[in-house]
Amino acid sequence: MRLHINRALAAASAVVLTTSLGVFAAAAPALADTDLGLPGYGDLVANDEHNRVFISGGPASNGITVTDLDGEVVKQIKNQYGATGLAQDDDTEWIYAALTSGDAITEIDVHTLEESDKIQLPANTCPTHLVYAGDVLWFGHGCDGNWNGGIGRITWPEPTEEDPDPEPVYQLNVQGDLRFQRAPLLAAHFEEVEEGEPYQAGTLVAAQLNLSLSTVYVYDITEDNGLSTRASSTAPGSNLFDIGLDKYGETLLTGAGGRNATQAYATSNLSGRGSYYTGYHPLAVAAAPDDCYVVSGVRSTGDDIYLYETGGVAPEKRIDISEDVLAPRGLTWSDDMEHLYAVTLPPTGGAPELHVIHDWKS
Hints:
Elements: E1 14-16, E2 33-35, E3 44-47, E4 52-56, E5 64-67, E6 73-77, E7 83-88, E8 94-99, E9 104-109, E10 115-120, E11 127-133, E12 136-141, E13 150-155, E14 169-171, E15 185-189, E16 202-207, E17 216-221, E18 227-233, E19 240-245, E20 251-256, E21 261-266, E22 272-277, E23 282-287, E24 293-298, E25 305-309, E26 317-319, E27 325-333, E28 340-345, E29 353-357
Antiparallel strand pairs: 1-2, 3-4, 4-5, 5-6, 7-8, 8-9, 9-10, 11-12, 12-13, 13-14, 15-16, 16-17, 17-18, 19-20, 20-21, 21-22, 23-24, 24-25, 25-26, 27-28, 28-29
C-alpha cells in the first residue's frame, strides 16, 4: 500500500482539558476533562477533515489515543510498540506512526482507526521522528545516544501491470557519512510544481537534540529524492527541544533550553531572523497555518504559552494552562486555526494531559 505522509508531531495519556487563557494572565473558562490513558508522551497531530486528534504515548508505550477535535476520546489503538513520531498524508486519509520500540512504521486508516499496513525495518533501527515531503517519508532513526542516528527515506515505486501494488522501499542513513548522536528531529517543506515547470528543491531540516551544543542541518531535497547539504549551524544553542518551519519553508523556528526566546533563522543560510522572547527556556514551537502567528511553549508552572504575531515585539497573549509543565514538542494547531492543542506533563514526569484551547484569539 502506498503511504503519503505529512509532518507530524505528539501525545498524552490522562488528558485534562482545563485551560486558563488570557492576555497577560487574564483568566478564561475551564474546559471539560478527559482521561486518555497513556503512560507517556510522543507526538500529536490534528486531522481537521475527519474531526480527529492522534496522540502517541512515546517509546515506553504501546498505544495511540484518538480524540475528536474537542478532546473527547474516540478510541485507543493498541500494539503500536513505542509509538512516538506521528504524521499524516496530504489527503488526510492516513496517519503514520514511528514505532521506536518496534523497529517499524505503521499506517492507520483514519476511517476505521485500525492499523492497515506496516513497514518493518531492520532490528535496532528505532525510527523516532517522521516528516513527509515530495511523496517521500523521511524519518529520523537511531537508538539511545551512541552516535548511530541518521535520516531514513521511504519511497514507493510506480505501479505496473505486473505489480499493481508495489512494496515500499526504505533506505537508512541517506544523509551520508554524518551521524547524529540520536535520532534527529525533522521538519520539511516541499512545493509541487506543474508539469513542464522546472523542479524546485524542497527543504529538509534535521536537528540534533539534547546536546550541550545542538547542530541544525538544512538540506536540499534533490529531484531524485537525495539530500544535498545547504547549511549547518550551532546557532540554536544547547539542549534543543523543538523545531518548526513557516508555511513557505523559508523560516526555521527553534526552541532550546540554552535560550530564553524562540529563535528564528533563514533556511537559505541559517542567518538570524529575529527572536520571540519568553524569559523561560522554550521547548515547543509552532508557526500558525496562516503564518500570522508564532506560538512558543516553555517549561513553567506559570504561563506556559506565548503567542506572538509573526515579527511582533511583545506577546499578544500569555496562556497559563495548568500547574503542570508543557511537554517538549507539545504544541500544534488545527488546520483551520480554531483550536490550539497543548500537552503537559507533571513536573516530575508521568501521565500527560491534552489541553484544547478554543478561544486563543479572545
